[in-house]
Design brief:
single chain; two-stranded antiparallel sheet; 78% helix
Length: 179
Amino acid sequence: MLNYAKAKEYLQEALRLIAQASAYQEQVVSLAYAGDKPAAHHVLLEKVIPVQDMVFVQYSQLLDMQRESVRRAMEEADDSFRFATLFMLLSGAVAVVVVMGVTTVVIARAREIEEALFQEKELAQVTLHSIGDAVITTDEKGRVDYLNSVAEVLTGRTLAEAHGKPLREVFSVMDERTR
């Protein structure tokens, strides 16, 4: 960071030297108007130019301080940028790992559920197939979904023929006495 106290000191010294140079320059102008060109030349070379050189030294020191301050600020900005970039990359990597972990757990759990559902369906089909009574299952719209072997015999249709047809087309209930 710029040392403001030191910068103020350099500026105050430069202003003091400028005031001194200004007084010498007025002296040079007065001597030149008076026609004493050798004296004006002497004051210019011996007093004005050396004081102006000192003003330039003060400004150079101030400029060097500002350059150093800018250099340090740029280094800090670069460090902050590198840190932010690294932080974002690491955060992104952690997010990807977490998402992959969650996805893996969800997929594994879905497979377990799917396998359990398949096992239950197999068990239900074996159970329905082994029942000695006729069994017909339908979907929510009343279309035939399953016939066991006893139902196939009683309806006179195979599961392949009855599947997807309305229940009324495959099976009709009738009273034995009244028909």
